[in-house]
Amino acid sequence: MTAAQQRQRIATHPGNVGGLSIRRALPTRALPMVGAWCFLDHLGPATLAPGQEMRVAPHPHIGLQTFSWMIEGEILHRDSLGCVQVIRPGQVNLMTAGRGIAHSEELLPGAERLHMTQLWIALPDGARHMAPAFEHHPVLPVMQRDGVRITVIAGTCLGATAPMQFHSPLVGVDVVAHGPAATTLPLDRAFEHGVLVLRGEVTVDGEALAPGTLLFLGPGHRSMSFAFDGPAQLLVIGGAPFAEDVLLWWNFVGRRPEEIMQAADGWNAGRGPFGVVEGYDGAPLVAPDPSGLRIGR
Ligand code: MN
Questions:
Q1: Which of 23, 212, 262, 275 is least enclosed by beta carbons within 10 angstroms?
Q2: Residue 25 C-alpha to ligand 1 middle, in angstroms?
């Protein structure tokens, strides 16, 4: 990695999830992953119109964990293991797809606000064929420090450790300022990191950062400083640089086109390891045609 790549500003790109416009910060052409974090959608903050829905119909995953961090609003998760779980602000849902799972996500009726991030974590080769699992984490370590609220949502920071297990070294930290404040977070020097402002503006190591831009820091940094002029919120993710080349296509993380195509064909044919999501009112999503995956790889 060159010095220029040690610190990069990456523009997020607009997308749509379940009828709601979002910003996608990972993957991008310039930056496919931060550690094992291989996908980052920022939904909201949004005030919803009366009757507005956000519904993501049953769809499959392989080779990854989905990690939902809820800031405002409530989302109902259903999966093919039979788990039905509402996630509320301050909570994390961690779904391990392993060899295959299916799930749906929808706003609870009557919701007025939505603000959340959904991330995916690529599973390393030794874990990616494991049995699927779902965990709901209603309580995470929260600290008040230097006038900000720090929540450790993954891994360890400032001596506090989030309750879930991962399959590669990771960290995730949410920082909220209610007014002018400044603080410093220690970083693991072996990790690369990404900072995404979720609302407001933050000066990161002397550099102004606003929603819509992910700031990437390569390994070797001992700390990161934040200055807030007013209310703001940011997310820091980090991890050991992922040693394996992954192939991310639709909702699948794999290694070779053949396994992705097999997963897509299996899902569309109602075969394979995914199971059935019970209780969702609507048809499942259809995987796009994966035949182009053979070309150019
Ligand atoms: Mn999903």
A1: 212
A2: 16
How far is the C-alpha of 278 from the C-alpha of 297, rounded, in Å?
A: 37
CA proximity to 190, closest of 138, 240, 126, 154: 240
The residues, any chain, with a CB within 8 Å of residue 296's CB and separated by 6 or more, are: none
Q: How far is the CA of 173 from the centre of ligand 1 (A)?
A: 22
The burial class, CB within 10 Å (0-12 / 13-18 / 19+), for 184 is middle
Give residue-wise pLDDT tens across range 94-104.
999 999 999 99
Q: Is the pTM of this model over 0.90?
A: yes
Alpha carbons 288 and 295: distance in angstroms, whole number: 15
Question: Ligand 1: distance of its center to the CA of 253 in Å?
Answer: 12
The dihedral through the CA atoms of 193, 4, 198, 247 has a sign that is: negative
CB 171 within 8 A of CB 140: no
User: Residues 109-141: pLDDT tens digits?
Assistant: 888 999 999 999 999 999 999 999 999 999 999
Distance (Å, whole) CA 123 – CA 97: 9
Q: Got the DSSP string for 284-295?
A: PP-PPPGGGGGT
- CA of 237 relative to ligand 1 center, distance in Å: 19
- Give me 99's structure tokens: 């060899």
| Distance, CA of 169 to CA of 36 (rounded, Å) | 8
Q: Which residues contact 29 (CB under 8 A, 6 or more apart)?
A: none
| Distance between Cα 250 and ligand 1 center (Å) | 10
Going along the chain from its start, the domains and CATH numbers come out as 3-239 (2.60.120.10)
